[in-house]
């Protein structure tokens, strides 16, 4: 916090000080006028009506100043959920209460925090929200493990459905001479894409000995237990999901020949050879494939394929005998094919007759992942005694948001 930015505590103290000063000044003025009233009564036997009227106004002003002082005092004593320090304090309380719930099933701490306006969920809602640090750890792990999440757009929402409008026919525009006739422009035609979030769950189990061990970081344990399960299910859904109780994968949409491409379908071209690249100059087909994508998308485009397909592509050479594939030159980087990075996804189909085995496109513009904020945990010590199960859920949606940004290569003639 910089010196020029006062803390909420400092601001509250300053407001309280000013309110008190205003009250004291008003009271001093009130005393002066009242002394004048008393003097008038002693000397003339009656108070001056102007003095009495002024005292009435000052009396009302004193009441206003007192109410303001009481309000500021009340606010300064109330927990301030929006300030950094109180929020950090409540976060620590949440973590401590969550630890008690996981280890011993105690819910009183979480219910107490909920009464302080920190939403942690409740049993009837399907469990309690994990602390923010745990949710962040899980989401970071998902990005590291899930192949599609790091290359797609990700949006967090608080509702169950994210709706995105898009234009299917823009407003009319054109060139015209300075004195030429301007025709009436058409209005843009808008449609709406809907991305519902679906429930993804994992159910790690713990022994009583693990839960009783105070050296075990419970938050970290849950994050490690669920991240792989979540990442595996997500990775499959983002590629092949059918949209029924799961996200819609980009491979599930209708495919159409690129020459006849239309919105709502994924464009594709064929290799010209069943279950294989062309026998001669196979790299030329990859060049054709790359240029099915418009220039605006190619700048951030990448290939997506599985390991078996990569093994085939790595053997391809250009006309000069140079390999089209280049391995990553430093840790954390992706290998490249014809200068474009490659993402490995085992959920992509193998090379086979008429299989769409390679995808290419700008997935950040093409595919949207929607995360509903909050991961919930429901403790179940009864179903699998002596083990304690932790039904952990998060809500995730996904689907294509720009059908012109992703193309497929079909291994057929």
Structure description:
The protein has 413 residues and is of the alpha+beta class. The protein folds into three domains: 65 residues; 49 residues, no CATH class; 261 residues, 2-Layer Sandwich (Major capsid protein gp5 fold). It is 39% helix and 22% strand. The chain is built from eleven helices and 18 strands. The strands form three sheets. Strands 1, 2, 3, 6, 7, 15, 16 and 17 form an eight-stranded mixed beta sheet that branches. Strands 8-9-18-14-10-13-12-11 form an eight-stranded mixed beta sheet. Strands 4-5 form a two-stranded antiparallel ribbon. α1 runs antiparallel to α2, α3 runs antiparallel to α4 and α5 crosses α7. It starts with 7 loop residues before the first helix and ends with a strand.
Per-chain topology:
Elements (H helix, E strand, L loop, with lengths): L7 H37 L4 H29 L6 H21 L3 H8 L5 E2 L4 E3 L2 H14 L7 E5 L3 E9 L19 E8 L1 E5 L2 E2 L1 H5 L5 H23 L14 E3 L8 E5 L11 H9 L4 H4 L3 E4 L1 H7 L11 E2 L9 E2 L2 E5 L10 E7 L1 H4 E6 L3 E5 L7 E13 L5 E6 L2
Parallel strand pairs: 3-15, 8-9, 9-18, 10-13
Antiparallel strand pairs: 1-2, 2-16, 4-5, 6-17, 7-17, 10-14, 11-12, 12-13, 14-18, 15-17, 16-17
Helix pairs in contact: 1-2, 3-4, 5-7
Overall CATH architecture of the largest domain: 2-Layer Sandwich
Number of domains: 3
Oligomeric status of the shown chains? single chain
CATH topology of the largest domain, anyone? Major capsid protein gp5 fold
For the record, the CATH class of the largest domain is: Alpha Beta
Which residue ranges are poorly predicted, with pLDDT under 50 across at least 5 consecutive positions? 1-8, 78-85
The N- to C-terminal Cα distance equals 65 Å
Average pLDDT value? 85
Shape: elongated
Largest sheet: 8 strands, mixed
Output the structural class.
alpha+beta
Strand content: 15-25%
User: Helicity range of the residues?
Assistant: 25-40%
Number of strand elements: 18
Please trace the helix and strand order, writing H or E for each element: HHHHEEHEEEEEHHEEHHEHEEEEHEEEE
């Amino acid at each position: 916090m910089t010196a020029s930015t006062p803390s909420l505590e400092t601001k509250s103290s300053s407001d309280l000080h000013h309110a008190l000063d205003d009250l004291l000044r008003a009271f001093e003025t009130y005393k002066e006028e009242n002394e004048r009233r008393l003097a008038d009564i002693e000397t003339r036997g009656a108070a001056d009506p102007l003095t009495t009227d002024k005292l009435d106004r000052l009396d009302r002003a004193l009441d206003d100043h007192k109410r303001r002082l009481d309000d500021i005092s009340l606010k300064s004593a109330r927990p301030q959920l929006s300030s950094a320090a109180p929020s950090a304090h409540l976060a620590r309380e949440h973590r401590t209460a969550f630890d008690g719930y996981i280890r011993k099933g105690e819910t009183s701490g979480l219910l107490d925090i909920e009464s302080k306006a920190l939403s942690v969920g409740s049993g009837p809602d399907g469990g309690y929200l994990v602390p923010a640090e745990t949710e962040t750890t899980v989401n970071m792990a998902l990005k590291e493990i899930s192949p599609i999440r790091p290359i797609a757009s990700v949006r967090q929402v608080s509702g169950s459905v994210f709706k995105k409008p898009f234009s299917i026919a823009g407003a009319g525009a054109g060139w015209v001479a300075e004195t030429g006739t301007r025709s009436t422009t058409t209005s843009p035609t808008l449609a709406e894409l809907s991305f519902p979030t679906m429930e993804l769950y994992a159910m790690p189990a713990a022994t009583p000995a693990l839960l009783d061990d105070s050296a075990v970081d419970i938050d970290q344990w849950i994050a490690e237990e669920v991240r792989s399960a979540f990442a595996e299910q997500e990775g499959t859904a983002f590629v092949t999901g059918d949209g029924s109780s799961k996200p819609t994968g980009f491979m599930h949409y209708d495919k159409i020949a690129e020459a006849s491409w239309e919105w709502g379908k994924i464009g594709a071209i064929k290799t010209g050879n069943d279950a294989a690249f062309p026998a001669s100059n196979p790299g030329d087909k990859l060049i054709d494939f790359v240029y099915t994508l418009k220039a605006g998308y190619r700048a951030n485009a990448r290939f997506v394929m599985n390991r078996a397909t990569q093994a085939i592509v790595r053997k391809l050479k250009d006309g000069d005998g140079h390999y089209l594939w280049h391995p990553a030159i430093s840790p954390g980087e992706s290998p490249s094919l014809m200068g474009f990075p490659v993402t490995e996804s085992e959920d992509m189909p193998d090379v086979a007759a008429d299989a769409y085995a390679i995808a290419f496109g700008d997935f950040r513009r093409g595919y949207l992942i929607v995360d509903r904020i909050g991961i919930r945990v429901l403790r179940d010590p009864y179903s699998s005694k002596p083990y304690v199960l932790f039904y952990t859920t998060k809500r995730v949606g996904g689907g294509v948001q720009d059908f012109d940004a992703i193309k497929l290569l079909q291994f057929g003639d």
